[in-house]
Amino acid sequence: MTVLDLPAVLALHAAGGLPLDDAALDRLHGVLGEIHGELSGHQLERLAAAAVFPTDAGERRPLVGADRALVPAEEGLRALLPGVAWLRADLARGAPHVARLPVVALTVDHLARRLADRPPPELAGQPIATVEAALAFVADRAERISGPTRQALAEAPVWPGRQGELRPLGALRAPAADPRVAAVYRALDAWPLAGPAALRAAAALGLDDHLRTPDLGRMVQDLATAQVAAVRALPPAVLYPALAAAGQTLPPSRLAALATLPIFPTIDGQAAPLGHWDAPDAGGAHRVPAALAGALEHTGRRRLDPGTEEALLPLLEALRLRPAEVTDLALVVAAGARSVALDAVRETLVHLADAWDARLAGLAVWPSQAGTYTAAEALIRPSALRGSALAGIVEVGPDGLLDERAEADADALAGAVRFRSPVALLLVRLEAEARPGEPLADQPPWLQTPGQVGRLLTVAAEEPGVDPARLPLTVDAQGCLCRRARFRGHL
């Protein structure tokens, strides 16, 4: 056979007129290898299009066209892509005429594109034998991988975690240097740690920026975007030390997202975000000292579990989430609480008398004998009337008298809470009924003798802020009631 016979031989074989068994086909390729230097470009194109190239599976295919056999640029590709119709290895490696054919060999970049799920047409749908082995193969030849293919690889779920699961590179984390952070990531399924193979491949491919090494700041960001259930599942012994460390290290602006996570346990065993006493209640968990807990439970605000509060104190302080103060008891009153709640506030005030705040004096937590609640300054203590010179003169209805059961509390807060004085009612009655300038005989029955006048004057003079000289409690020389400090008779 001469070179000039080749087109005729190929045409005859294609038409079925020249059957070739495997041995004959091998001899043909042997001859072609010997005369490859004499083949023209046109002849090489005709040869590449002929179905005379055996695959590993024994099929005969052309080397061009949709149904062609593929030529690997390096033999390692065969094992990684076992479903491909590869040109038989001896021809792909050592046949000089094959090397001259106008065909494109399949390269490691093609494999990388298949890994990234952006395959060239000839690899569409082709299975990869072992993703981890393919990734390592690609990483070892990183200099042959194009930039766009590398970026696509980073986004593909082909990167093995410590447990062997495959994820995008950005969903894995490198081992943290801080042991508290490392403990969180070991327990958190949302961002598993990258396996050794992923770490090596990322470094080789220059994709380290996609594989984040977590620190406290990154941990806070990851927790804020993780599934709430996954964060709640973290053991407190793992989560709390890391959050406390974040509170000691990071500024409030970087911690704020944590406060909104419903992961903080309340005393009733629920999980809630953190609550702030200086903001409207949004169902959060609030810091409540034990001494205020009984009264403040009537606000409806949830209480943060005390053990959690202690463990997370640096975080809570960094977020400026203060504990409840005694002045927050006003929230109970503002909520229109029932008597049991108001009584609880009053009892708390008694127990915290040493921490008294003047702003608490006006709280409407004092019961009247009519069953209503009001501020102390609106009520007269029954004990202040008993045995007083004003008994029988000052008339007080049930809604103006302190309930007897609260007298002990009034005694306990005597130096802090000021009740209404009976003298105040006396002054009202004097203004309404006394007749200055007229004789005592024309005065009300309780103001008709010098002795009565003198006793009332004595009581009024002991009242802070009252100027006795301005009161119509003086008897002049003519026996008339006046406001001047001239006396007649017995006081």
Folded structure, characterized:
This protein is mainly alpha-helical and 491 residues long. It is built from 24 helices and twelve strands. 31% of the residues are buried.
Quick take:
This protein has 491 residues and is mainly alpha-helical. Helix content is 41%, strand content 5%. A hairpin with a 5-residue loop joins strand 9 (366-367) and strand 10.
In whole angstroms, the N-to-C terminal distance is 156 Å
- Poorly predicted runs: 486-491
User: How much helix is in the residues?
Assistant: 40-55%
Beta-strand content estimate? under 5%
- Based on helices, strands and strand pairing, what is the structural class? mainly alpha
Order of strands, widest sheet? 1-2
Number of E strands: 12
Quaternary status: single chain
Spell out the key features of this protein.
two-stranded antiparallel ribbon; disordered C terminus; single chain; 491 residues; mainly alpha; 24 helices
Task: Give the topology.
Layout: H1 6-14, H2 22-35, H3 41-48, E1 53-54, E2 60-61, H4 76-80, H5 89-94, H6 96-99, H7 108-115, H8 131-140, H9 147-155, E3 159-160, E4 166-167, H10 179-187, H11 196-205, H12 216-225, H13 228-232, H14 236-249, H15 252-259, E5 264-265, E6 271-272, E7 285-286, H16 290-296, E8 302-303, H17 306-311, H18 313-318, H19 330-334, H20 339-351, E9 366-367, E10 373-374, H21 382-385, H22 407-412, H23 422-433, H24 450-461, E11 474-475, E12 481-482
